[in-house]
Amino acid sequence: MTDGGGRASVTDVTQLKLDTFLPYRLSVVSNRVSAAIATAYVRLFGLKIPEWRLIAVIAEGQPITQQAVGVATRMDKVTVSRAAQALAERGLIARQPNAGDKRSHLLSLTDTGRALYDQVAPKALEMEAAIFQQLDPEERKTLSAMLERIEAATARVAPESAE
């Protein structure tokens, strides 16, 4: 479209259509997947998403500091702290002093926390399979590789600041 003088209108060149803007679409899909999973975790296990993420990260390599959980999950300090407190109150995680850093604690799963993880993990994998069942194994592999490349590009465009 021109402005009457044969020049392209600025609004034509820079117009953003949200439903075709890839960052927005990624966010919408992510939110929908998280909401579906969150509903199941709350209903079945009484866990909020940050609490489940914390349990999952601890289960991978316990004990771990809250700071390391934040780095691994991209959750902010307050979210990690609240999740850790809620899980400790439920007896699902234990907090021990960190000999390497007196300002932090090491988080580990209790026996009850491990038993809950052992119930939740298969359900998480089942939900993942249901969500991605329309993709064949090669497409899932390609999607995973694409997401890694997008994450790397995002880190280059907007590096995370050290807190």
TrEMBL record:
PROSITE patterns this protein is in? HTH_MARR_1, HTH_MARR_2
Quick one: signal sequence residues?
Answer: none
* Keywords per UniProt: DNA-binding, Transcription, Transcription regulation
Q: Which residues form the HTH marR-type domain?
A: 19-152
Give the Pfam families listed for this entry: MarR_2 (PF12802)
> This protein's superkingdom?
Bacteria
InterPro entries hit by this protein: HTH_MarR-typ (IPR000835), Metal_resp_HTH_trans_reg (IPR052067), Tscrpt_reg_MarR-type_CS (IPR023187), WH-like_DNA-bd_sf (IPR036388), WH_DNA-bd_sf (IPR036390)
Question: Is the keyword Chaperone in the record?
Answer: no
Instruction: Report the GO molecular function annotations.
Output: DNA binding; DNA-binding transcription factor activity
Q: Which stretches are annotated as coiled coil? A: none
- Would you tell me the protein name for this molecule? Winged helix-turn-helix transcriptional regulator
